[in-house]
Design a protein that fits this description.
single chain; mainly beta; Jelly Rolls; three-stranded antiparallel β-sheet; 2 helices; 8% helix; globular; HNL-like_cupin; Cupin 2 conserved barrel domain protein
Length: 144
């Protein structure tokens, strides 16, 4: 369901929108918010609810790992997009689950007229890292 009003979105966002995602703001077009659900470094699997304002998306990026790794997105509220480089975009709705294997160039974010949240799950692996790449251009995003 598209939700353009922040107050309405907050009412249906079961994990809350969290705090402004200032630590990663340089990798997002628009405002995003982060609500960690597990404590990084203390739990073997890090989970965080990530919220995107309408039109917000992260840069193209790749989750690297020598073995295992990757990311799982569990969509919880609003409407979003996921796209792998060179493939058609996938519309995201509450209840959708996306597995992103390590080594896949991709982005995710909200649709232009809707807030969007997903739980990001960092899959365990060996020598995991995240490689941030170029922003998704307005032209790429507008063509979704």
């Amino acid at each position: 369901m598209k939700i353009s009003n922040k107050e309405e979105f907050v009412k249906v966002s079961m994990f809350g929108i969290g705090a402004p995602n200032d630590g990663f703001a340089q990798y997002f077009s628009g405002a995003s918010f982060l609500n960690p659900l597990t404590e990084y470094g203390k739990c073997p699997v890090f989970l965080a609810n990530v919220t995107f304002e309408p039109g917000c998306r992260n840069n193209w990026h790749i989750h690297h790992a020598d073995k295992g790794g990757g990311q799982i997105l569990v969509c919880t509220a609003g409407k979003g997009w996921y796209q792998e480089w060179g493939k058609p975009a996938q519309e995201l709705n509450p209840g959708d689950v996306v597995y992103i294997a390590s080594g896949i160039k991709h982005f995710h974010g909200s649709q232009k007229d809707s807030w969007f949240s997903h739980i990001a799950v960092e899959c365990p692996g060996e020598n995991c890292s995240n490689g941030w790449l170029e922003p998704v251009t307005d032209e790429q995003y507008d063509n979704l």
